[in-house]
Amino acid sequence: MRKTAPLIIFTISLFFITPACEKDDICPSETNATPLLVITFYDIDDIDNDTKKKVRSLRVVGADNDSVLTTIADQTNLDSIGIPLKIFSESTSFVFINNSTQDDTTEETGNRDTLTFNYQNKEVFISRACGYANKYENLNYQHTDDDDEWIKIIQVANENIENQNASHVKIYH
Q1: Average pLDDT for residues 67-89, to the nearest whole number?
Q2: Which residues neighbour 12 within 8 Å (Cβ) at sequence distance 6 or greater?
Q3: Considering the domain boundaries, does residue 11 fall inside one?
Q4: Dihedral (CA of 115, 137, 157, 68) sign
């Protein structure tokens, strides 16, 4: 009996511990998190065919904090970008700079246009491992007028931002 007592205790302990184990909660990398706002740039001279046109030396800066966005390569030629929207606000403003360069005093010399995107936040539960993600609804914009606008036409292609697989905003320049 003395030899079987430890075996019985071990078996009973194993019986109670095993059901307590569960699969690790790891959020898969392919899970749709909070999407970026996808903007595609088009040629104003070929508006009927929706011909994409790269913006020369594009820089995008947060209007509220003057920091250059890190979700896109700075001062490169791009025809499509993904930019983050604020999740604790219902509007986000950006300065889009065409032909971005800096002179000897590090002063920005490119052509600036300011866009403010307005939207409604919608928090969506993904899973226990992934938590919540934000989706955006009723997207619209305001274009701050200036004397030398390089952005000519703006169209909201999809006012609900649920993923970043397609363009949400078309900008013609």
Answers
A1: 90
A2: none
A3: no
A4: positive
Contacts of 135 (CB under 8 A, 6+ apart): 34, 35, 121, 122, 123, 124, 160, 161, 162
- What DSSP letter does each residue of 31-79 carry, written as one string? S--SPPEEEEEE-GGGGGGT-B-PEEEEEEEETTT-PBPSSS-TTEEES
pLDDT in tens, 101-154: 876 667 778 899 999 999 999 999 988 888 899 999 999 999 987 788 999 999
| Domain-located, residue 21 | no
Share of the chain above pLDDT 70, in %: 84
Does residue 10 fall inside a structural domain?
no
In a domain, 132, yes or no: yes
